[in-house]
Specification:
transport; cytoplasm; Nuclear Transport Factor 2, Chain: A; alpha+beta; globular; 6 strands; 3 helices; NTF2-related export protein; 33% strand
Length: 141
């Protein structure tokens, strides 16, 4: 049985890839054009489980996003963050405490990223282009 040894460069490239992907993904998710742009992160074979509700492929993601209010994500680490839904995500206003609209919610999201064979090949030390093969998001607070 062989053991894979990761170098400091491997770890650095992985860290940069995670940072770049996370920034791009959530800025796209929070944009007004998200119903058109966010599905581009997925493929027809991709799976997404959003708070226990399964979606399949690009069309499933697009349908989910189209029915969701606007969002503002605040990533606190690579494994959790806060998300605010609704009109208050753009301009905070006073909302009733019983309403989810405008109230930040803690969530975690796990991505299984796969190098995109259609993307240009990354050079040595460069971050490859990825697509989301599997995605699981759940509210925790």
């Amino acid at each position: 049985m062989s053991t894979t040894v990761f170098t400091r460069d491997d770890i650095d490239i992985s860290t940069r890839a995670a940072d770049q992907f996370t920034r791009l993904y959530y800025s796209t998710y929070d944009s007004p054009a998200r119903a058109e742009d966010l599905p581009k992160f997925y493929r027809p074979t991709s799976t997404l489980t959003w708070n226990g509700n399964p979606c399949q492929g690009v069309d499933g993601v697009k349908k989910l996003i189209q029915n969701m209010p606007s969002t503002k994500h605040e990533v606190q680490s690579y494994d959790s963050g806060n998300v605010t839904h609704g009109k208050s995500s753009e301009h905070p206003v006073t909302t009733p405490s019983r309403s989810v609209d405008g109230q930040p919610r803690v969530f975690f999201q796990t991505f299984m990223l796969v190098p995109d064979p259609a993307a240009p090949i990354a050079g040595v030390g460069e971050v490859a282009k990825y697509y989301v093969d599997a995605d699981s998001m759940r509210f925790v607070g």
